[in-house]
Write a structure and sequence with these properties.
single chain; 11 strands; 3-stranded antiparallel β-sheet; 144 residues
Length: 144
């Protein structure tokens, strides 16, 4: 299954809104260079969310955009929900991610949940460890 990376998002501090960049380095066993969530200690080094999931929230009335769910890679045209723990995702020519977690617990209901009573990240967000790093840019192919 093939699609593309629609947006790349990073934040320098945890708990702050991510901003979009046109390209970034994804470092092996670390994550997106420059992103506060990147660390050697985590199994959630890179997060992915489909733009189709974001559109679900927009249909509920949320004014949301790529990066607003704190995802690093917003994808388009691939069914992220069909992935399982251990599946491999190829991003561009070099990057390989291994799915390490699907969804996440939402400890404190985010602003999006407060506004519309639902959030897609706890069920549809995908997290991965970086098996092989490289450069990622908007529009590169993603497949698994």
């Amino acid at each position: 299954m093939k699609g593309k990376v629609l947006r790349i998002s990073v934040s320098e501090k945890r708990g702050t809104k991510k901003y979009n960049v046109s390209s970034a380095e994804i470092r092996e066993n670390f994550g997106l260079v420059g992103d506060a969530h990147a660390t050697f200690k985590s199994h959630r080094q890179v997060s992915l969310l489909a733009c189709e999931s974001i559109e679900k929230m927009r249909a509920l009335g949320a004014e949301v955009f790529p990066g607003d769910f704190a995802e690093n890679l917003t994808t388009e045209g691939v069914d992220l929900l069909s992935l399982k723990i251990g599946d491999k995702i190829k991003v561009g020519q070099d990057i390989i991610l291994e799915v390490s977690q699907i969804g996440k617990e939402c400890h404190s209901k985010c602003e999006i949940f407060q506004a519309v009573g639902e959030c897609v990240m706890p069920k549809e967000g995908i997290f991965g460890k970086v098996v092989q790093g490289g450069m990622v840019s908007e529009g590169v192919e993603i497949e698994f």
